[in-house]
DNA sequence: ATCTCCCGCCATATG
DNA sequence: CATATGGCGGGAGAT
């Protein structure tokens, strides 16, 4: 018995690993696509099993499986066979495993090709699926929801979905990564770990609470769904509203992987982050448990997609279940050429669609009654106000807002109003297509115009200032983007509250250049505690930031003195078209802000579409949209503003600094960063320190002393990828502080965090990396770092606001102890 | 005992 | 109102 199981496991692993490459040994080169209709039904399987499958059959199965990557299935089958054979098939009662979501998902996936040809769209009828797979409908929803979050499917109407396969995956992941960076997940992860650490020592740390609260909170909780351009949710029905929780959760979960360096995320951490996380002390046990359950559900689907695999992280305390990203590395957007490659599919951006007001409205999030998140008392007030706003918003026609990624930033909530929206929205709406819609919505919120468009695709181009990008609208086409895309644009749906925020502030932006400061302030108010967050962010982020930082740094350099606000102004001013430009800025700002908060939206990348898109946007729309998207792509989300390379590098940093929460940098910068440095950022977050201006380096150095982090080599992926740029390095990351060292490679990296946004650079030290090892095998040692502040637990760097609104973080030193973690695979 | 996570009740959303 | 969707959490199988 056992043996078989083991085998199965083994085989799975093997298969899994192989598959990626595809064709490994066994796998016949089947086209990725699986024949759509595969007959694999449970029944068929049984039959086969029962019959003891002839070799032929088996081989066939294997092929399929392999191709499908349903190694599991095979395993299962084997098991079944044995059992059955052994005893007559006593009905194999399907043991629980046989009914697992993962297995079901494999079956589901086996029915559709990974890369369906654009020409032939495949539709999914839930009724058929449930029947064929013999499962309860509820289960299918779980699968579909996760797939939707990755834009592998999109809903058409009741009971009907369109299968997109993995065409959109690259874009989606890119967009998610961006958003994840914007959300400062890295920082959050670190905070959580830090907290844990502190708790250990001193159980009652109160202050932490605050931090925590600030963290996240409240706002975060809101969720937004990230959409891709082409893919949107069509069904009106589904789309807009409510239930997107699993989808959003799934996206966030994926973001965590993409952002953290070791690309290993423990369920515990993920759950905490996904929960609004006030967590802390509240220990809402039940809530936590529920979150974990959901994460398992999501993880099972992601595992079936081979995007992650289960591992265990062992720390001092014990062993914790975790998952490791095994999916494609996401390029940092940037640039690139790569992007294109990735996106291959997407050729034209598309646009799409439907911008109807309705959609917009749909987009709006319902206020949801529930929304309540747990919040700290302190936050409660905020929450209430926010909720009120939401209501208002909701009521408002346009409420749902989708914002472009960049927009979404705005998350920060502002209580204000929504009134503005409608008007804006319409304007925006006009031209846009769905994507547009989204954007519009967002735009509306933020600014009407806007949709942020696009950014030039490239960074370099991007860099240009806002001005460069034309706004989406009219000019749309503009510029840039020639290619595209690397950047992915995405739209996010915000909750009302968010919307508010956005709205509120956006207008201002739109209209006037907003001073960052203002914004900031606002955010701070609304958002949870920014300061804290900020601080943390700083710490945390580093890895990610680095790129960012670098960007920021550049910016600063560029602007240097300018504060973020100033920048904003400039940008805005710069923009001829204000709108566009403004938007971007605003977007950026918002992005920045968003960083602080997390968005909770569902992200939708605007960018290219894959076939899926509706390609047809009206011409105009398309043009606009497309262009937008492209443009956006670069920085849509973020701030969209394109910056010159130089800027990129530098710039971002400033942003961070500047605004604490509010202004953070946007993704753009981040995105850009990669380009700049290019290097390896694979880790996304990390890395790069390279370019950063000398100042940046100094920074880092300074910080370094402060915070040593363990470094880790990024997981394999990173290494591999990274060619490493000059820096090479490393990445530290810490995502939470865990560093994984893979066996072979050892790296030394120093991370620094420091507080504040500004600071986080991680410095890395050298790393030599051996060639990348690939999969580490099993146990890997991971190091975790915890922060410790010298003074005490809280000693983190504090932020102070500058007059301009920007905040600065003082650095505290953090000391991060490293722990070793071992990662073991199952 | 802990880790996973299936099952399915029941609130909501959609039509 | 009937369904379609999905949030949610009990509690049981797997380890």
TrEMBL record:
It is found in: Nucleus. Gene3D superfamilies: Winged helix-like DNA-binding domain superfamily/Winged helix DNA-binding domain. Residues 795-813 have a biased composition (Polar residues). SMART domains: E2F_TDP (SM01372). It comes from the Eukaryota. GO terms for molecular function: DNA-binding transcription factor activity, RNA polymerase II-specific; RNA polymerase II cis-regulatory region sequence-specific DNA binding. Residues 539-561 have a biased composition (Basic and acidic residues). Belongs to the E2F/DP family. This is Transcription factor E2F8. It comes from Dicrurus megarhynchus. The lineage of its organism: Eukaryota, Metazoa, Chordata, Craniata, Vertebrata.
